[in-house]
């Protein structure tokens, strides 16, 4: 079953409550946290996640695009995140393994994300040793919404799907960046089962219709 995760990065932050309501037919809410270091942009932090949590019961999929994300795992977990995803490039492996173990202790689901440059093989230890719940393959350079889908990531999505089937079939495979009704079909065919979409949902005249179109 495919899950659709609208990214509030493309919402109107002055009217976030309304814009969350607009995507209530989706499955998850994707929250992009950026620190101006790991990516050249700043977005939202812990207090905003806390406010969103009070406002909605949707599953909060929090994508941490921050250096040394272990520093903030506890704060985002306590703020109400359901799933925290950390980037493989954001710290050394021992620190990432520790961050994932902390997510377990705090009772949140745990994911790892790959920038376009990072090879599929990098996910293997995290599937085997950490039992991650989700792998996020970026199909744009992280940092901004509204970029074009990188079709050269499709073979990587297929490879990650093979590793998931081999080592941890219950793990979800999420794709983020340039996903619209057309590219959604390609990533689902390649093995994705969670689709993040910012501009394709919030840039559409009818977000609910856009969500339905993404489901295919
Ligand atoms: C980009 C973010 C994405 C972004 C996707 O770094 O991780 O979640 O919101 O936006 P679109 O769907 O417009 O590419
Ligand atoms: Zn994201």
UniProtKB/TrEMBL annotation:
<keyword id="KW-0479">Metal-binding</keyword>
<keyword id="KW-0862">Zinc</keyword>
<dbReference type="Pfam" id="PF00834">
    <property type="entry name" value="Ribul_P_3_epim"/>
</dbReference>
<feature type="binding site">
    <location>
        <position position="63"/>
    </location>
    <ligand>
        <name>a divalent metal cation</name>
    </ligand>
</feature>
<dbReference type="GO" id="GO:0005737">
    <property type="term" value="C:cytoplasm"/>
</dbReference>
<dbReference type="GO" id="GO:0019323">
    <property type="term" value="P:pentose catabolic process"/>
</dbReference>
<comment type="pathway">
    <text>Carbohydrate degradation.</text>
</comment>
<feature type="binding site">
    <location>
        <begin position="198"/>
        <end position="199"/>
    </location>
    <ligand>
        <name>substrate</name>
    </ligand>
</feature>
<feature type="binding site">
    <location>
        <position position="178"/>
    </location>
    <ligand>
        <name>substrate</name>
    </ligand>
</feature>
<protein>
    <recommendedName>
        <fullName>Ribulose-phosphate 3-epimerase</fullName>
        <ecNumber>5.1.3.1</ecNumber>
    </recommendedName>
</protein>
<comment type="function">
    <text>Catalyzes the reversible epimerization of D-ribulose 5-phosphate to D-xylulose 5-phosphate.</text>
</comment>
<dbReference type="InterPro" id="IPR011060">
    <property type="entry name" value="RibuloseP-bd_barrel"/>
</dbReference>
<keyword id="KW-0413">Isomerase</keyword>
<dbReference type="InterPro" id="IPR013785">
    <property type="entry name" value="Aldolase_TIM"/>
</dbReference>
<dbReference type="InterPro" id="IPR026019">
    <property type="entry name" value="Ribul_P_3_epim"/>
</dbReference>
<keyword id="KW-0170">Cobalt</keyword>
<dbReference type="GO" id="GO:0046872">
    <property type="term" value="F:metal ion binding"/>
</dbReference>
<feature type="binding site">
    <location>
        <position position="30"/>
    </location>
    <ligand>
        <name>a divalent metal cation</name>
    </ligand>
</feature>
<dbReference type="GO" id="GO:0006098">
    <property type="term" value="P:pentose-phosphate shunt"/>
</dbReference>
<feature type="active site" description="Proton donor">
    <location>
        <position position="176"/>
    </location>
</feature>
<keyword id="KW-0464">Manganese</keyword>
<feature type="binding site">
    <location>
        <begin position="176"/>
        <end position="178"/>
    </location>
    <ligand>
        <name>substrate</name>
    </ligand>
</feature>
<feature type="binding site">
    <location>
        <position position="7"/>
    </location>
    <ligand>
        <name>substrate</name>
    </ligand>
</feature>
<feature type="binding site">
    <location>
        <begin position="143"/>
        <end position="146"/>
    </location>
    <ligand>
        <name>substrate</name>
    </ligand>
</feature>
<feature type="binding site">
    <location>
        <position position="176"/>
    </location>
    <ligand>
        <name>a divalent metal cation</name>
    </ligand>
</feature>
<feature type="binding site">
    <location>
        <position position="63"/>
    </location>
    <ligand>
        <name>substrate</name>
    </ligand>
</feature>
<comment type="similarity">
    <text>Belongs to the ribulose-phosphate 3-epimerase family.</text>
</comment>
<feature type="active site" description="Proton acceptor">
    <location>
        <position position="32"/>
    </location>
</feature>
<dbReference type="InterPro" id="IPR000056">
    <property type="entry name" value="Ribul_P_3_epim-like"/>
</dbReference>
<keyword id="KW-0119">Carbohydrate metabolism</keyword>
<dbReference type="GO" id="GO:0004750">
    <property type="term" value="F:D-ribulose-phosphate 3-epimerase activity"/>
</dbReference>
<feature type="binding site">
    <location>
        <position position="32"/>
    </location>
    <ligand>
        <name>a divalent metal cation</name>
    </ligand>
</feature>
């Amino acid at each position: 079953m495919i899950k659709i995760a609208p990214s509030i990065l493309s919402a109107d932050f002055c009217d976030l409550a309304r814009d969350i309501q607009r995507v209530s037919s989706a499955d998850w809410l994707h929250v992009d946290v950026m620190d101006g270091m790991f990516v050249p942009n700043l977005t939202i932090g812990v207090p905003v996640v806390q406010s969103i949590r009070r406002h909605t019961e949707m599953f909060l999929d929090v994508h941490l695009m921050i250096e040394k994300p272990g520093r903030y795992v506890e704060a985002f977990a306590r703020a109400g995140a359901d799933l925290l995803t950390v980037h493989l490039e954001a710290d050394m492996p021992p620190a990432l393994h520790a961050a994932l173990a902390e997510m377990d202790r705090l009772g949140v689901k745990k994911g790892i994300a790959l920038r376009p440059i990072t090879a599929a093989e990098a996910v293997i230890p995290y599937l085997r040793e950490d039992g991650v719940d989700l792998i996020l393959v970026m199909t744009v350079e992280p940092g901004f919404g509204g970029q074009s889908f990188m079709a050269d990531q499709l073979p990587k999505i297929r490879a990650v799907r093979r590793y998931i089937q081999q080592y941890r079939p219950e793990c979800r495979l999420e794709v983020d960046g340039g996903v619209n009704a057309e590219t959604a079909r390609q990533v689902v065919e390649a093995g994705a089962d969670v689709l993040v979409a910012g501009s394709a949902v919030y840039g559409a005249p009818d977000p609910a219709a856009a969500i339905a179109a993404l489901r295919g």
